[in-house]
Specification:
- The protein is of the alpha+beta class.
- Helices cover 53% and strands 15% of the residues.
- The protein has three domains: 120 residues, Butyryl-Coa Dehydrogenase, subunit A, domain 1 (Orthogonal Bundle); 110 residues, Butyryl-CoA Dehydrogenase, subunit A, domain 2 (Beta Barrel); 141 residues, Butyryl-CoA Dehydrogenase, subunit A, domain 3 (Up-down Bundle).
- Strands 1, 2, 3, 4, 5, 6, 7 and 8 form an eight-stranded mixed beta sheet that branches.
- The protein is globular, with a radius of gyration of 21 Å.
Amino acid sequence: MRLIESALDDGHREVRDRADAFAEDVVVPRAAGIEASDEFPRDVIEEAGERGLLGLLLPEGYGEVTTDFLGYCLAVERIAAESGAVAETIQGHTFAALPIARFGTEAQREEHLPAMADGSAVGAMLLTEPDAGSAPSGLASIAEATDDGYRLSGEKSFGTNAGVADVHLVVARRRPESDDSHGVSVFLVPSVDDADGFEFERAEYMGMRGHVTGDSTLEGVHVPAGNLLGEVGQGFRIAMGTIDMARTGLGAIGVGIARAAFDEAVAYAGDREQGGSPVGEYQAVQVLVADMYRQFAGARHLVYSSAAEIAAEGGDTRASSLAKLAGSEAAEFVTRNAIQVHGGTGYRKGTPVERYYRDAKILSIIGGTSEIQRTTIAGETLDL
């Protein structure tokens, strides 16, 4: 990984060291408990804020530490190696804070960003709908103008931190509806407890336990006029403005999970004896280890290449889709084969590789499925 290391400056290394200390001191002792209870780890997120890891991409003055997108990916990869759920929670929170930083009024930034940076407030973006996927132009949720603001109605699916967030960025279409996506806008909605007509039902998934997502219903939820983020019709730009960053960040989470599973498999192959020899001396296991390393190392280079490009030039759609595809598929491939190296032991509930395997699967679905990433890569390559 010398190429990656050579691209880092002292600021990147400081962020990586902070993430490493947070992972070792806070996440490692809590990871098993989060997995067992499936409860939202608010205390862990608060600690991440206290250690300066929630405001990494915010403007100076809001977060304790700021960095570029390469530094951010270093942090989430390290955290994901200990808990994919914590890393994905931070990812969802970060990409709810960024639109406020970019498009919010000074009053909105002052109200939300300090608390989001220090961990005392959690953010969520509600975009996806049951019949609209994540394409804002197809949204059915509506925002009707009132004398003093807007009334929101509709259904949202998924949304990292939905329901437990203190501020939700809800993407909805203004009524009367326009004939294109220009009526799509973003509204700042408080917590479920503080917004009449806002209900949330959490979904249970096979992995990422402790990561909260589910179905949100808004029935005439009133928001003041001052809770419009940006301008009417900017919703598509706001919602999709960080897509390259979000996809690359998910790739980094995949790399973190893959790295953790790879390390577990290598350690087991050296310690576990079969027929008087470590199983790592068997060629079948060596082939698995080599292929796992190929997938993990290749994905890591693609993720950090995309992250560095985002940091330097704002990003590239094909590179970010490639990073997301490679990171998520490496996570699935490496975790699956880490279980294979462990044999029956790896299939047991409660073993690290069993958890990594379940956590990895969601990465090929959220943020645009692997099939969508392939279509995007092909489209960009063929100039379609």
